[in-house]
Design goal:
With about 350 residues, the chain is α+β, with helices and mostly antiparallel strands. It is about 30% helix and about 25% strand. The strands form 4 sheets. An 8-stranded antiparallel beta sheet has the order 2-3-7-8-11-14-15-16. The protein has a 3-stranded antiparallel beta sheet with strand order 1-9-10, with no helix packed on it. It starts with 14 loop residues before the first strand and ends with a helix. Bound molecules: adenosine monophosphate (AMP) and magnesium ion.
């Protein structure tokens, strides 16, 4: 996946984990502990919180989680020249490349999300993402340059052979980029590693992609805050999660401004320009991979079609801030979100669909 290596003009966390601690005695005596650690991976801040029977269990679980994320980065990052995805991209138009079950799974889930979102989510956008280069050295590509890339962005030319475990990009110059879904997948996989290492609850947060499991030691669910897309450092809404993931896509995360226009990192596959319908989209789902793929796809679809899709899907909810700053909360979340007491958006949740 593309992850930023150099700072860009706008870049901030879109979801903030607010995990505190409480105390409830374990059935076999003693108290569970909560440990949280943060490291840089996939070009972003990753924090892992684990609840364990003691310090050692919690720390071992956190180590296992970070190790899993590092392993996935080596498979999926297009910044690493010999990652599996880089090898798939380098062999475009030449030959299929055999990949790990994990890389295959991310690409297959990406194609599913592409179908769910009517092509708004498109991992074949690699050449257009590179042309804008928002994560490293942003530039404004010309309309003709973008037009010339369009034949390369054809998802039907992404061939996945499940039996052979290969991926083949049929056209020379094609490149796939899983930056819009890979962090959610990594959060899911890291949670599995935490559980396997004995954690009884925890949270994996890769910037705005968060996956939770279990409850805090005091029995409470994990509280998270969604960042306000236009007021830096301020909370849009609070929400409690249990065995759920949340993922946010925002036009404030990576962007530059030229002549008063904001150019950000989420591209509309039809125009190859930054999508204009939303300021931010937060999706709550069981799996991080689905939440992450959908936040990007729904951002492109825009608030109306995007919310229609959310209402149609089981176990998927969303908070969408449209271009005018209006907040739309899906029916299943209306009773769950809490606006800060001084929020000007307070009251919109009940009124909006
Ligand atoms: P997210 O923050 O999850 O929305 O992911 C943003 C990243 O997804 C970008 O930095 C690109 O790497 C990638 N991307 C941008 N536009 C799209 C799109 N329409 N479909 C799939 N991936 C995209
Ligand atoms: Mg995403």
């Amino acid at each position: 996946m593309r992850t930023s290596r150099t700072p860009v003009i706008g870049c901030c966390l879109s979801v903030i984990l607010l995990a505190g601690s409480g105390c409830a005695e374990l059935p076999f005596g003693g108290f569970p502990v909560l440990v949280k650690r943060t490291q840089m991976h996939m070009g972003t801040l990753v924090s892992i919180t684990a609840v364990g029977a003691n310090d050692e269990v919690a720390n071992d679980a956190i180590n296992a989680g970070f190790q899993e994320i590092r392993r996935l980065e080596r498979l999926l990052s297009t910044w690493i020249a010999d990652s599996e995805l880089s090898r798939v991209n380098a062999s475009a138009g030449v030959k299929p490349v055999q990949v790990s079950p994990e890389t295959l799974a991310v690409v297959r889930r990406s194609l599913q999300v592409a179908e769910m979102t009517g092509g708004a989510f498109n991992i074949a956008l690699g050449p257009a993402i590179d042309a804008w280069n928002i994560s490293a050295e942003p530039r404004l590509p010309s309309v003709s340059e973008l037009e010339s890339l369009k034949p390369l962005l054809d998802l039907r030319a992404v061939r996945v052979d499940v039996r052979e475990r290969t991926i083949y990009l049929e056209k020379t110059g094609m490149r796939i980029d899983v930056g819009g879904i890979g962090k959610g997948y990594a959060a899911d996989q890291a949670v599995m590693a935490l559980k396997k290492a004995g954690a009884m609850a925890g949270v994996v947060a890769l910037s705005g992609d968060i996956k939770t499991f279990g409850k805090l030691p005091g029995g409470k669910t994990f509280p998270v805050a969604i960042q306000h897309p236009r007021r830096e450092g301020q909370v849009l809404v609070f929400i409690d999660l249990q065995d759920e993931a949340i993922s946010t896509a925002g036009d404030y995360e990576r962007f530059f401004e030229q002549d008063g226009v904001r150019y950000h990192h989420i591209l509309d596959p039809v125009t190859l320009q930054p999508a204009r319908g939303c300021q931010s989209v937060s999706v709550v789902a069981r799996d991080g991979v689905l939440a992450d793929g959908l936040d990007t796809g729904i951002f492109v679809m825009g608030p109306t079609r995007g919310m229609e899709l959310v209402e149609h899907l089981e176990d998927v909810e969303a908070v969408i801030v449209d271009q005018a700053g209006e907040v739309h909360v899906s029916s299943g979340l209306k009773k769950r979100v809490r606006f800060p007491s001084d929020s000007p958006e307070k009251g919109q949740a009940q009124g909006s669909k």
